[in-house]
Fold this sequence. Notes:
This protein has helices at residues 21-34, 37-51, 55-76, 80-83, 138-152, 171-185, 187-190, 204-218, 238-241, 249-265, 269-272, 285-288, 305-318, 341-359, and strands at residues 89-98, 104-113, 122-128, 155-160, 192-202, 227-231, 294-301, 321-331. The protein is an alpha/beta fold. It has an 8-stranded mixed sheet with strand order 1-2-4-3-5-6-7-8, sandwiched between helices. Strand 5, helix 8 and strand 6 (227-231) form a beta-alpha-beta unit. The two termini are 21 Å apart.
Amino acid sequence: MSDRVASKHLFNFPLRGVIDGDVAAFESSLEEEMVTGVAKLMLHKMQELSEAESEASDREFTAMIRAMIDPFIQKIGSHPVLTACAEQVTERDVTVPTTHCGQYDVHVYVYTPRARADCAQNAAYIHAHGGGGVASSAGDAKPWLHYMAVNCGVVVFNVDYRLAPETKSPNNVMDFYEAVMYIHSNAGELGIDPGKIAIGGECGGGYITLGTMVLLAQRGQSHLIKLAMPGMSLIDDYCFTASPSCMTVEERRDMLSMRKIWRLRARDWAAQRDDPVLVPSKASDELLAKFPPTILSEVEFDMFITETSRLATRLRRAGRLLEFVVIPGAKNGSNLVPEFECFEVWQRTVKRALDEYLMK
Length: 360
């Protein structure tokens, strides 16, 4: 793939260098809770586990991060703005048989807007849920994907890939890749146009998406995907290599936990850290030039902003970057909270991106 993509230059949000007031107020209330009692002890224990290197510490860290992330996501997902969309979609389940890590069926949940139910050539979006690749589930992402299906008029495929540390790289990425291949091969039965398929996800889902983009590029299959949309993604082992003094506030804060999460996803971190399926930033310029057309997205105050900015520069030079979107004033995950102003900005951005780069 040598043709350069043509950007429409749709998104150029002015960055103010200030966290949105609603996001800052919410964060302040969380910080007040975290300085006392059980929460303070939990944070101290998480930091201690982040620095430990043992199977026991891996298990305990994973259990703690899931206990923190999963209920938080589920609570936000119960917001009426999101749940109101459930009645406007039909749901079905698809199982994708795989053999790359034992005999395993990857479950894919399909959400079709009722308004598009009779159309046999719908555009499709295949989603990898967030959670750092170690937490959350496809079920947790369902309310946002119902909203997306209705708001954007696409059929959404929600892939329940396996998590680390129980499933190591590349097998979690392979779960998503195999689901993408199955959906493309069975497009007619699934009521979608095989020429209008997008893939994407945020945070850990962005990492899964990027790993899949690497596999597609390596196997000469990028033409199967019209649009890739990884957002707020774990891309680089920057947390190991950069001096804390040159990091952003968010990068310094999460440096140790990010190191732990990278190790959790690898069978052997030292042996795999140059594998672009595990660490997408390690993709060569030649491989990046074979990526699907890509929109990278970020929020202004994210712990992955530096590595995403660097990948955007490389993809632009390789001719594969459609847009690099940075939502101003937002932090990691705040763009998914319906009460926040940045939620509306994010949703309008996603809809416009799909309208302009997938539907046309």
